[in-house]
Design a protein that fits this description.
elongated, mainly beta, eight-stranded mixed β-sheet, eight-stranded antiparallel β-sheet, 46% strand, 3 helices
């Protein structure tokens, strides 16, 4: 049985790896530079039990992530085998069997992500899981030619209590709302959203969340639980269009600099707009920071307190988990992230990515945006060494003659004084005056001889 689970778990990795076997393209700079980002994890929980008094916050588990640039030598992989009972999972995650993930991004640009969780038992009631599944697999691939795809996503024998099992439901399938609605919960299988703006796709095999932001009498928890997540997104030099469509959440991201060098500070500004008819109950806002940058501070609608997590494939997640924060219907919230270019950053164009989890609407990712080109630039040339006046290229004495041998005041290039050694009289030197006197005397003698 274990070998069967293991083979099933790595099927997602093999599938996504085959998608990355493509030629590499040459890099460009600026907003049209190729870029790609992939992220996958098997399990993530951000919730509270018993009227919010007990936090249950763990994950992402078995996570893989990768970005281009820079070009990694190989895709990232992660796995947790024979997991059994999930520490800190409590009633929300009773146990899982095998968790695997894969993420790859290259300069094609192409991004591919896949995650799989096997033998899953969730929402235990008196030791009996309310939700079970044999396989929950999410796959997301994006390039600049084909539409983003969830091909390979698989859900096998998703069971709720004694109801009939569900296998491979349609995207965004609402699982038994008549059961979970009275509990204040929504269970979405095969959740799929294009990146909120940009070109990419977010896939969650299973997403369970509280729909009201408050604990109703029968509610099990507030917050959300994701099993098998995959996200891929690219920036296309060929101008391939955004796939954002009519998402309920739109995210705009800008940077205050187009170019920066190591040590420079860059400020990203993210504006998250809620186009839905209901408020977005904010569970998490995450800035996926490229590995060329280090986090300094954040402020705005979602608070000033953030935790940072290093991603396996490079870069940093800056995570905000505000309490009781909503984005009203038709409203927006703005957050700034101040970062610094790392001293060890390599030259290239880096893109930023923002993600938001709305407890009642879903999981939305911006897509690659806000490019900043890290450019070391030309170092300031050192000041030239001091040269003597007769070799410095300047007319230091204002006589219209420059340096040795043109200036008669210079005896050599090493002479540090262009001023003529003879004193000046009436604007003429003594040598010139002597010549005039000689000419005058000659003229007088000729006149006397004539007389």
């Amino acid at each position: 049985m274990q070998s069967t689970l293991r083979r099933a778990a790595f099927a997602a990795v093999a599938l996504a790896a085959s998608l990355l076997a493509v030629p590499q393209a040459s890099a460009q700079t600026g907003a049209k530079a190729p870029a790609a980002s992939a992220d996958a994890y098997a399990l993530d929980v951000d919730a509270r039990l018993l009227n919010g008094s007990i936090p249950v916050d763990f994950g992402p588990r078995a996570r893989s992530s990768q970005e281009y640039p820079p070009q990694a030598p190989a895709p990232a992989e992660a796995s947790e085998l024979k997991v059994g009972e999930v520490p800190a999972g409590g009633a929300l995650v009773q146990s899982v069997g095998v968790m695997t993930s894969f993420a790859g991004a290259n300069s094609q640009p192409l991004a591919a992500a896949a995650s799989q969780t096997v033998d899953v038992r969730l929402l235990a009631q008196a030791g009996v899981p309310l939700i079970q599944a044999d396989v929950l697999k999410a796959v997301s691939t994006t390039d600049c030619i084909n539409p983003p795809s969830a091909a390979g996503t698989e859900i096998v024998n998703l069971r709720v209590s004694t109801f009939d099992p569900i296998t491979n439901p349609e995207p965004n399938f609402d699982v038994l709302p008549q059961v979970f609605g009275p509990l204040g919960l929504r269970v979405i299988a095969n959740e799929q959203f294009p990146t909120a703006d940009g070109r990419g796709l977010v896939v969650n095999a299973l997403h369970i969340y509280n729909t009201s932001g408050a604990t109703v009498p029968l509610s099990l928890f507030t917050g959300d639980l994701i099993v098998s997540h995959a996200m891929s997104t690219v920036n296309c030099p060929n101008g391939a269009p955004s796939t954002g469509g009519n998402n309920p959440i739109f995210i705009e991201k800008n940077s205050d600099k187009a170019k920066a060098k190591p040590g420079d500070t860059v400020t990203y500004t993210a504006t998250i707009e809620n186009k839905a008819a209901t408020p977005c109950l904010v569970n998490q806002v995450i800035d996926h920071l490229p590995q060329a940058f280090s986090f300094e501070s954040t402020s705005g609608a979602f608070g000033t307190t953030a935790t940072t997590v290093n991603r396996t494939g490079g870069g940093t997640d800056v995570i905000l988990k505000p309490s009781n924060v909503t984005i009203p219907a038709g409203g927006s919230g703005t957050q700034t992230f101040v970062v610094k270019v790392r001293d060890d950053a390599t030259e290239g164009t880096y893109f930023n990515n923002v993600e938001i989890l709305c407890g009642n609407l879903g999981n939305f990712v911006k897509g690659l945006d806000a490019p900043v080109t890290v450019d070391f630039g030309d170092e300031e040339p050192p000041p030239p060494p001091d040269k003597p006046q007769c070799d410095d290229g300047e007319d230091n004495d204002g006589d219209g003659k420059i340096d040795f041998p043109a200036d008669p005041g210079c005896s050599s290039k090493q002479d540090d004084n262009e001023v003529d050694e003879h004193p000046r009289t009436g604007g003429r030197d003594l040598a010139g005056l002597a010549i005039l006197l000689m000419l005058g005397a000659y003229a007088v003698r000729r006149k006397a001889a004539t007389i």
